[in-house]
Protein backbone atom coordinates (compact mmCIF):
# COMPACT_ATOMS: atom_id res chain seq x y z
CA UNK A 1 0.00 0.00 0.00
CA UNK A 2 1.10 3.56 -0.68
CA UNK A 3 2.07 5.72 2.29
CA UNK A 4 0.75 9.10 1.11
CA UNK A 5 -2.17 10.13 -1.07
CA UNK A 6 -1.01 13.41 -2.63
CA UNK A 7 -2.31 12.91 -6.14
CA UNK A 8 -4.72 10.60 -7.93
CA UNK A 9 -1.63 9.64 -9.93
CA UNK A 10 -0.33 7.91 -6.76
CA UNK A 11 -2.98 5.24 -7.43
CA UNK A 12 -2.61 2.42 -9.93
CA UNK A 13 -5.73 0.51 -10.98
CA UNK A 14 -5.16 -2.24 -8.43
CA UNK A 15 -4.73 0.11 -5.47
CA UNK A 16 -7.66 2.29 -6.52
CA UNK A 17 -9.90 -0.75 -6.87
CA UNK A 18 -8.84 -2.02 -3.45
CA UNK A 19 -9.78 1.36 -1.94
CA UNK A 20 -13.19 1.30 -3.68
CA UNK A 21 -13.86 -2.26 -2.52
CA UNK A 22 -12.86 -1.36 1.03
CA UNK A 23 -15.11 1.73 0.85
CA UNK A 24 -17.96 -0.66 -0.01
CA UNK A 25 -17.31 -2.59 3.18
CA UNK A 26 -17.15 0.64 5.17
CA UNK A 27 -20.47 1.74 3.65
CA UNK A 28 -22.11 -1.47 4.88
CA UNK A 29 -21.16 -0.34 8.39
CA UNK A 30 -23.10 2.93 8.02
CA UNK A 31 -26.36 0.96 8.06
CA UNK A 32 -25.57 -0.57 11.46
CA UNK A 33 -26.70 0.86 14.76
CA UNK A 34 -23.12 1.05 16.05
CA UNK A 35 -21.15 2.69 13.25
CA UNK A 36 -17.73 2.46 14.84
CA UNK A 37 -14.80 0.13 14.16
CA UNK A 38 -11.91 -0.17 16.65
CA UNK A 39 -9.26 -0.33 13.87
CA UNK A 40 -7.49 3.00 14.43
CA UNK A 41 -7.78 3.12 18.22
CA UNK A 42 -4.78 4.96 19.67
CA UNK A 43 -3.80 6.48 16.32
CA UNK A 44 -3.92 10.24 15.76
CA UNK A 45 -5.34 11.90 12.66
CA UNK A 46 -4.84 15.66 12.26
CA UNK A 47 -7.10 17.66 9.96
CA UNK A 48 -5.06 20.66 8.82
CA UNK A 49 -7.34 23.06 6.95
CA UNK A 50 -5.91 26.29 5.55
CA UNK A 51 -8.88 26.83 3.25
CA UNK A 52 -12.62 26.89 3.85
CA UNK A 53 -14.40 23.59 3.65
CA UNK A 54 -17.70 22.12 4.76
CA UNK A 55 -18.09 18.66 3.24
CA UNK A 56 -14.48 17.55 3.08
CA UNK A 57 -13.53 18.55 6.62
CA UNK A 58 -16.62 17.04 8.23
CA UNK A 59 -16.24 13.94 6.09
CA UNK A 60 -12.63 13.30 7.12
CA UNK A 61 -13.53 13.92 10.75
CA UNK A 62 -16.45 11.49 10.61
CA UNK A 63 -14.29 8.91 8.80
CA UNK A 64 -11.48 9.06 11.36
CA UNK A 65 -13.92 8.94 14.29
CA UNK A 66 -15.77 5.93 12.88
CA UNK A 67 -12.43 4.15 12.84
CA UNK A 68 -11.90 5.17 16.52
CA UNK A 69 -8.86 7.38 15.82
CA UNK A 70 -8.11 10.42 17.96
CA UNK A 71 -8.92 13.42 15.79
CA UNK A 72 -7.34 16.85 16.07
CA UNK A 73 -8.95 19.57 13.98
CA UNK A 74 -6.71 22.46 13.09
CA UNK A 75 -7.99 25.36 11.08
CA UNK A 76 -5.71 28.19 10.05
CA UNK A 77 -8.12 30.80 11.37
CA UNK A 78 -7.61 31.18 15.10
CA UNK A 79 -4.25 29.35 15.09
CA UNK A 80 -0.66 30.65 15.06
CA UNK A 81 -0.88 30.66 11.26
CA UNK A 82 -2.65 34.00 11.59
CA UNK A 83 0.47 35.13 13.50
CA UNK A 84 2.54 34.21 10.45
CA UNK A 85 3.72 30.73 11.37
CA UNK A 86 4.98 28.84 8.34
CA UNK A 87 3.70 25.49 7.12
CA UNK A 88 7.03 23.96 8.05
CA UNK A 89 6.84 25.09 11.68
CA UNK A 90 3.26 23.89 11.92
CA UNK A 91 4.37 20.56 10.45
CA UNK A 92 7.12 20.22 13.04
CA UNK A 93 4.58 20.85 15.80
CA UNK A 94 2.35 18.09 14.42
CA UNK A 95 5.36 15.83 14.13
CA UNK A 96 6.20 16.46 17.80
CA UNK A 97 2.63 15.49 18.72
CA UNK A 98 3.01 12.19 16.90
CA UNK A 99 0.42 12.51 14.15
CA UNK A 100 -0.05 9.20 12.32
CA UNK A 101 -1.86 10.90 9.45
CA UNK A 102 -2.19 14.52 8.40
CA UNK A 103 -5.09 15.49 6.16
CA UNK A 104 -4.23 18.82 4.54
CA UNK A 105 -6.21 21.38 2.55
CA UNK A 106 -4.13 24.33 1.41
CA UNK A 107 -4.45 27.16 -1.13
CA UNK A 108 -0.98 26.43 -2.55
CA UNK A 109 -0.66 23.66 -5.13
CA UNK A 110 1.98 21.21 -3.93
CA UNK A 111 1.65 21.93 -0.19
CA UNK A 112 0.95 18.23 0.60
CA UNK A 113 4.17 17.25 -1.21
CA UNK A 114 6.17 19.67 0.94
CA UNK A 115 4.44 18.51 4.10
CA UNK A 116 5.26 14.87 3.37
CA UNK A 117 8.97 15.72 3.56
CA UNK A 118 8.59 17.17 7.07
CA UNK A 119 6.42 14.63 8.89
CA UNK A 120 6.77 10.88 9.45
CA UNK A 121 3.06 10.13 9.20
CA UNK A 122 0.91 9.66 6.11
CA UNK A 123 -0.11 12.80 4.23
CA UNK A 124 -3.51 12.92 2.57
CA UNK A 125 -4.29 15.73 0.15
CA UNK A 126 -7.76 17.16 0.84
CA UNK A 127 -7.41 19.77 -1.91
CA UNK A 128 -4.33 21.84 -2.78
CA UNK A 129 -5.00 25.04 -4.68
CA UNK A 130 -6.07 24.35 -8.25
CA UNK A 131 -4.00 21.15 -8.32
CA UNK A 132 -5.66 18.00 -6.94
CA UNK A 133 -8.28 16.51 -4.66
CA UNK A 134 -7.74 12.75 -4.86
CA UNK A 135 -10.26 11.61 -2.23
CA UNK A 136 -12.99 13.51 -4.10
CA UNK A 137 -12.08 11.51 -7.22
CA UNK A 138 -12.28 8.29 -5.19
CA UNK A 139 -15.72 9.09 -3.80
CA UNK A 140 -16.88 10.10 -7.27
CA UNK A 141 -15.58 6.84 -8.76
CA UNK A 142 -17.26 4.93 -5.93
CA UNK A 143 -20.55 6.72 -6.66
CA UNK A 144 -20.33 5.93 -10.39
CA UNK A 145 -19.56 2.30 -9.71
CA UNK A 146 -22.41 1.88 -7.25
CA UNK A 147 -24.94 3.59 -9.54
CA UNK A 148 -23.80 2.21 -12.90
CA UNK A 149 -22.06 -1.02 -11.91
CA UNK A 150 -18.65 -0.32 -13.45
CA UNK A 151 -16.14 2.38 -14.34
CA UNK A 152 -14.26 0.88 -17.28
CA UNK A 153 -15.83 2.02 -20.53
CA UNK A 154 -18.01 4.75 -18.96
CA UNK A 155 -18.25 8.02 -20.87
CA UNK A 156 -17.81 10.80 -18.32
CA UNK A 157 -18.36 14.44 -19.24
CA UNK A 158 -16.84 17.01 -16.87
CA UNK A 159 -18.35 20.46 -17.40
CA UNK A 160 -17.35 23.98 -16.45
CA UNK A 161 -14.45 25.63 -14.67
CA UNK A 162 -11.86 22.94 -15.39
CA UNK A 163 -9.04 25.47 -15.23
CA UNK A 164 -9.46 26.12 -11.49
CA UNK A 165 -10.76 22.67 -10.56
CA UNK A 166 -8.66 20.25 -8.52
CA UNK A 167 -11.71 17.97 -8.62
CA UNK A 168 -11.53 17.80 -12.42
CA UNK A 169 -7.79 17.13 -12.44
CA UNK A 170 -7.97 14.28 -9.94
CA UNK A 171 -11.01 12.81 -11.68
CA UNK A 172 -9.32 12.82 -15.09
CA UNK A 173 -6.32 10.97 -13.66
CA UNK A 174 -8.25 8.40 -11.65
CA UNK A 175 -10.97 7.75 -14.23
CA UNK A 176 -8.38 7.22 -16.95
CA UNK A 177 -6.49 4.78 -14.72
CA UNK A 178 -9.76 2.88 -14.23
CA UNK A 179 -10.57 2.81 -17.95
CA UNK A 180 -13.29 5.47 -18.31
CA UNK A 181 -13.36 7.90 -21.23
CA UNK A 182 -13.37 11.55 -20.12
CA UNK A 183 -14.50 14.59 -22.10
CA UNK A 184 -13.89 18.08 -20.70
CA UNK A 185 -16.45 20.73 -21.67
CA UNK A 186 -16.57 24.47 -20.98
CA UNK A 187 -15.73 27.82 -22.50
CA UNK A 188 -12.24 27.91 -24.08
CA UNK A 189 -11.11 30.34 -21.36
CA UNK A 190 -11.84 27.73 -18.70
CA UNK A 191 -10.90 24.62 -20.70
CA UNK A 192 -7.59 25.51 -22.39
CA UNK A 193 -6.90 23.31 -25.43
CA UNK A 194 -3.73 21.79 -24.03
CA UNK A 195 -5.09 20.97 -20.56
CA UNK A 196 -6.50 17.58 -21.54
CA UNK A 197 -3.37 16.35 -23.28
CA UNK A 198 -1.17 17.61 -20.46
CA UNK A 199 -3.19 15.64 -17.91
CA UNK A 200 -3.97 12.45 -19.76
CA UNK A 201 -3.62 11.98 -23.54
CA UNK A 202 -6.86 10.00 -23.97
CA UNK A 203 -8.96 12.91 -22.63
CA UNK A 204 -11.09 14.82 -25.13
CA UNK A 205 -12.18 18.45 -25.14
CA UNK A 206 -15.44 19.92 -26.46
CA UNK A 207 -16.88 23.43 -26.36
CA UNK A 208 -20.40 22.29 -27.18
CA UNK A 209 -22.25 20.76 -24.23
CA UNK A 210 -25.40 19.86 -26.19
CA UNK A 211 -23.48 17.70 -28.65
CA UNK A 212 -21.85 15.48 -26.00
CA UNK A 213 -24.84 14.89 -23.70
CA UNK A 214 -26.62 12.17 -25.76
CA UNK A 215 -23.59 9.85 -25.39
CA UNK A 216 -22.79 10.50 -21.74
CA UNK A 217 -23.13 8.00 -18.90
CA UNK A 218 -22.08 10.57 -16.31
CA UNK A 219 -22.20 14.38 -16.34
CA UNK A 220 -20.13 16.02 -13.64
CA UNK A 221 -20.87 19.72 -13.18
CA UNK A 222 -18.15 21.91 -11.65
CA UNK A 223 -18.58 25.03 -9.55
CA UNK A 224 -17.50 28.27 -11.17
CA UNK A 225 -14.70 29.26 -8.78
CA UNK A 226 -14.97 33.04 -8.81
CA UNK A 227 -12.71 33.27 -5.74
CA UNK A 228 -9.80 32.01 -7.85
CA UNK A 229 -10.51 34.30 -10.81
CA UNK A 230 -8.59 37.53 -11.20
CA UNK A 231 -9.83 38.09 -14.75
CA UNK A 232 -13.20 37.79 -16.33
CA UNK A 233 -13.42 34.41 -18.01
CA UNK A 234 -16.91 34.75 -19.52
CA UNK A 235 -19.18 37.68 -20.42
CA UNK A 236 -21.82 37.22 -17.70
CA UNK A 237 -23.30 34.63 -15.36
CA UNK A 238 -26.38 34.52 -17.57
CA UNK A 239 -24.33 33.85 -20.69
CA UNK A 240 -22.33 31.14 -18.92
CA UNK A 241 -25.46 29.48 -17.68
CA UNK A 242 -27.11 29.59 -21.10
CA UNK A 243 -24.20 27.81 -22.78
CA UNK A 244 -22.79 25.58 -20.05
CA UNK A 245 -25.41 25.32 -17.32
CA UNK A 246 -27.31 22.06 -16.89
CA UNK A 247 -31.01 22.86 -16.94
CA UNK A 248 -34.02 20.58 -17.41
CA UNK A 249 -34.21 20.71 -21.26
CA UNK A 250 -30.50 19.82 -21.41
CA UNK A 251 -30.87 17.05 -18.86
CA UNK A 252 -33.52 15.48 -21.15
CA UNK A 253 -30.83 15.00 -23.81
CA UNK A 254 -29.06 12.49 -21.57
CA UNK A 255 -29.60 8.75 -21.98
CA UNK A 256 -32.15 7.24 -19.56
CA UNK A 257 -29.52 5.70 -17.25
CA UNK A 258 -27.15 8.71 -17.06
CA UNK A 259 -26.37 10.33 -13.71
CA UNK A 260 -25.66 13.96 -12.78
CA UNK A 261 -22.88 14.69 -10.28
CA UNK A 262 -21.55 17.80 -8.53
CA UNK A 263 -18.86 17.89 -5.82
CA UNK A 264 -20.50 20.81 -4.01
CA UNK A 265 -20.77 23.57 -3.06
CA UNK A 266 -23.20 24.36 -5.89
CA UNK A 267 -24.10 27.68 -7.44
CA UNK A 268 -27.73 26.75 -7.98
CA UNK A 269 -29.06 28.48 -11.07
CA UNK A 270 -25.61 29.03 -12.53
CA UNK A 271 -23.88 25.77 -13.47
CA UNK A 272 -26.84 23.65 -12.41
CA UNK A 273 -30.57 24.34 -12.24
CA UNK A 274 -32.23 23.59 -8.88
CA UNK A 275 -34.66 21.11 -10.54
CA UNK A 276 -31.67 19.18 -11.91
CA UNK A 277 -29.77 19.23 -8.63
CA UNK A 278 -32.82 17.82 -6.83
CA UNK A 279 -33.82 15.32 -9.54
CA UNK A 280 -33.61 11.54 -9.22
CA UNK A 281 -30.63 11.51 -11.62
CA UNK A 282 -28.63 13.64 -9.23
CA UNK A 283 -26.15 11.83 -6.97
CA UNK A 284 -25.10 14.96 -5.07
CA UNK A 285 -26.30 13.86 -1.63
CA UNK A 286 -25.06 10.30 -2.22
CA UNK A 287 -21.62 11.68 -3.06
CA UNK A 288 -21.43 13.25 0.39
CA UNK A 289 -22.40 9.99 2.13
CA UNK A 290 -19.97 8.03 -0.04
CA UNK A 291 -17.25 10.51 0.88
CA UNK A 292 -17.20 9.23 4.45
CA UNK A 293 -16.86 5.60 3.30
CA UNK A 294 -14.15 6.44 0.76
CA UNK A 295 -12.14 8.42 3.34
CA UNK A 296 -12.52 5.65 5.91
CA UNK A 297 -11.07 3.26 3.35
CA UNK A 298 -8.15 5.61 2.61
CA UNK A 299 -7.32 6.18 6.29
CA UNK A 300 -7.67 2.49 7.09
CA UNK A 301 -5.47 1.27 4.25
CA UNK A 302 -2.82 4.01 4.45
CA UNK A 303 -2.45 3.48 8.18
CA UNK A 304 -1.70 -0.20 7.68
CA UNK A 305 -5.10 -1.91 7.64
CA UNK A 306 -5.39 -5.19 5.76
CA UNK A 307 -7.67 -5.64 2.75
C1 LIG B 1 -14.49 21.15 -4.10
C2 LIG B 1 -13.16 21.70 -3.62
O1 LIG B 1 -13.07 22.27 -2.55
O2 LIG B 1 -12.23 21.48 -4.35
N1 LIG B 1 -15.41 20.87 -3.15
C3 LIG B 1 -15.30 19.76 -2.38
O3 LIG B 1 -14.27 19.39 -1.88
N2 LIG B 1 -16.43 19.03 -2.19
C4 LIG B 1 -15.00 21.86 -5.27
C5 LIG B 1 -15.29 23.32 -5.18
O4 LIG B 1 -14.87 24.02 -4.27
O5 LIG B 1 -15.94 23.80 -6.11
From TrEMBL:
Binding site for L-aspartate: 83, 166, 223
Catalyzed reaction equations: carbamoyl phosphate + L-aspartate = N-carbamoyl-L-aspartate + phosphate + H(+)
EC code: 2.1.3.2
Pathway where this protein functions: Pyrimidine metabolism; UMP biosynthesis via de novo pathway; (S)-dihydroorotate from bicarbonate: step 2/3
Keywords, alphabetical: Pyrimidine biosynthesis, Transferase
Pfam families per record: OTCace, OTCace_N
GO BP: 'de novo' pyrimidine nucleobase biosynthetic process; 'de novo' UMP biosynthetic process; amino acid metabolic process
One cellular component term from this protein's GO annotations in UniProt: cytosol
Residue stretches making up the Aspartate/ornithine carbamoyltransferase Asp/Orn-binding domain: 153-302
GO MF annotation: an example: amino acid binding
Gene3D superfamilies on file: Aspartate/ornithine carbamoyltransferase
Coiled-coil region list: none
The keyword Manganese appears for this protein: no
Domain (Aspartate/ornithine carbamoyltransferase carbamoyl-P binding) ranges: 3-145
Binding site for carbamoyl phosphate: 55-56, 105, 133, 136, 264-265
UniProt subunit comment: Heterododecamer (2C3:3R2) of six catalytic PyrB chains organized as two trimers (C3), and six regulatory PyrI chains organized as three dimers (R2).
Functional note: Catalyzes the condensation of carbamoyl phosphate and aspartate to form carbamoyl aspartate and inorganic phosphate, the committed step in the de novo pyrimidine nucleotide biosynthesis pathway.
Family (UniProt): Belongs to the aspartate/ornithine carbamoyltransferase superfamily. ATCase family.
Name listed for the protein in its UniProt record: Aspartate carbamoyltransferase
Organism: Actinoplanes auranticolor
